[in-house]
């Protein structure tokens, strides 16, 4: 299916007429990740120039829209609650982005308590679910449509190159994902690794040759499934764990941190073993 009136086709394989050509799959079995990264950076730079010229309102909406909406929501949170709640929300968002990822949802408490106790408690699992979902969508909107200038930034450029290498490695180990394309992207984003999520998914969607609309939709679905699994897990934890017991609370935090470290350690070991084998 194509596009109607310049609006992205979210599920079709054809790129909307923002570029002069359809996005093409990038060979995940190339001899060096730098070749794929250079090609992707070139494609994104070319797309960014054409995108801004042909569709300036979409360019601005996807670039500044998430930031403006986030600022508006934070202002609404402040008015509806208080400064202490807003500080707790911002601190949790930072910890989520840099450390916990969607695992933070497992720490969510159940809502419905009395107002005073709830004000001093951690965020509910529903609040955390919505927070992580929004963070994923905001980041995906920026990366899917505006990677071009991000590749030129000193700190982010090397990080994006590392994500290209991660995507190539996963495609090499799991070649069925390339055949599954859209479903493969959804599953890629769903799995909780540092290399996955909305940031890695934005790169991975391009490696699969998906249109930008399809990539954004795949990231949204993957985030919903991944966050939903954590939401259900938090409900099970709340049913059997006393949140008022500090030993269980901090012990659970240690378990989550250990699980994150274990998953990423295992992933790095697999990559190291693959480099030795090849």
What is the element layout, followed by pairings?
Elements: H1 33-54, H2 56-80, H3 83-100, H4 115-120, H5 125-150, H6 156-173, H7 176-180, H8 182-190, H9 197-207, H10 212-240, H11 246-277
Brief synopsis:
The chain has 278 residues and is mainly alpha-helical. The chain contains eleven helices and no strands.
Task: Please describe the structure with a list of short key phrases separated by commas or semicolons.
11 helices, 278 residues, mainly alpha, disordered N terminus, 72% helix, single chain, globular
Name the beta content range. under 5%
Write down the Rg. Answer: 20 Å
- Structural class by SSE content: mainly alpha
Q: Give a count of the beta strands, DSSP E runs of length 2 or more.
A: 0
Order of helices and strands: HHHHHHHHHHH
How much helical structure, as a percent, in the residues? Answer: over 70%
Oligomer kind: single chain
Distance between the termini: 40 Å
Tally of individual helices: 11
How many strands, what sense, and barrel or not for the largest sheet? none
Mean of residue pLDDT values: 77
Instruction: Give the total of domains.
Output: 1
Globular, elongated, flat, extended or rod-shaped: what is the shape? globular
Low-confidence runs: 1-32, 114-120
């Amino acid at each position: 299916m194509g596009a109607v009136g310049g609006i992205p086709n979210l599920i079709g394989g054809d790129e909307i007429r923002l570029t002069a050509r359809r996005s093409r799959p990038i060979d995940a079995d190339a001899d060096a990740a730098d070749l794929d990264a250079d090609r992707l950076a070139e494609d994104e730079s070319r797309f960014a120039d054409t995108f801004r010229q042909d569709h300036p309102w979409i360019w601005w909406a996807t670039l500044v829209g998430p930031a403006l909406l986030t600022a508006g929501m934070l202002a609404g949170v402040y008015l509806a609650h208080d400064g202490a709640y807003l500080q707790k929300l911002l601190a949790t968002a930072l910890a989520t982005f840099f450390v916990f990822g969607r695992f933070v949802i497992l720490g969510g408490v159940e809502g419905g308590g009395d107002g005073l106790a709830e004000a001093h408690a951690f965020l509910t699992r529903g609040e955390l679910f919505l927070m992580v979902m929004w963070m994923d969508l905001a980041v995906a909107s920026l990366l899917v449509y505006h990677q071009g200038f991000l590749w030129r930034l000193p700190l982010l450029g090397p990080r994006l190159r590392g994500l290209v290498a991660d995507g190539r490695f996963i495609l090499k180990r799991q070649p069925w994902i390339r055949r599954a394309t859209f479903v493969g992207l959804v599953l890629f984003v769903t799995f909780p690794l540092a290399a996955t999520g909305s940031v890695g998914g934005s790169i991975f969607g391009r490696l699969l040759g998906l249109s930008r609309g399809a990539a954004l939709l795949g990231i949204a679905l993957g985030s919903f499934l991944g966050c939903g699994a954590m939401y259900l897990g938090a409900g099970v934890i709340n049913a059997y764990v006393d949140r008022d017991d500090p030993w269980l609370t901090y012990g659970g935090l240690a378990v989550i941190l250990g699980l994150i470290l274990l998953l990423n350690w295992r992933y790095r070991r697999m990559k190291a073993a693959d480099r030795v084998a090849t």
